[in-house]
Known about the structure:
The complex is a heterodimer of chains A (about 110) and B (about 110). Chain A has about 110 residues and is mainly β. Chain A has strands at about 5, 10-15, 20, 25, 30-40, 45-50, 60, 70-75, 85-90, 100, 105-109. In chain B, the strands form 2 sheets. In chain B, strands 2, 4, 5, 6, 9, 10 and 11 form a 7-stranded mixed sheet that branches. A 4-stranded antiparallel sheet of chain B has the order 1-3-8-7, with no helix packed on it. With about 110 residues, chain B is mostly beta strands.
Amino acid sequence: xxxxxxxxxxxxxxxxxxxxxxxxxxxxxxxxxxxxxxxxxxxxxxxxxxxxxxxxxxxxxxxxxxxxxxxxxxxxxxxxxxxxxxxxxxxxxxxxxxxxxxxxxxxxx
Amino acid sequence: xxxxxxxxxxxxxxxxxxxxxxxxxxxxxxxxxxxxxxxxxxxxxxxxxxxxxxxxxxxxxxxxxxxxxxxxxxxxxxxxxxxxxxxxxxxxxxxxxxxxxxxxxxxxxxxxx
Lengths: 109, 113
């Protein structure tokens, strides 16, 4: 069965420090991986997709099929990065997105 | 502003009652998906409606049902409410039956007592 695992419920780092939010998935085919973010009192929104290979707000994520991982990284954390982050998976012909349980990122000043 | 709106924002119901939640999709989107987000968990897929037909369903019992209207807005109905149905219910609109590039609503917080 398809599954997304985010092992950390809470990650707290100092402003300016590097950030890495871990995500592992299980899917035998070719997945599409996403990171969604939810800032305080805001709706869930797409942060980035692996197929876009883009950097959004300084965040990047590389799909590692060998390790079935899609970790989210940012070299220098900013206070406005504090939010709930969800790793998610979908695949061609799927009508659904499978979400992980989320990691709360807290940036300390 | 994404344009996906849900109503009501909060709701309290008694166990055994029925509830209807509503979602207006983003202009131009013909697909609506519903997710349940329990406290401390990620959203879980309930079902999707594409052009007024159910187009995929998650692991939820039949007492969770839905509708999509010709204007692509949607309703989620839950019968015989249970305490475990207490959650945030999210609606997401997208295009052509695909979940990609989905825009989420702000959610309806349902509390069953």
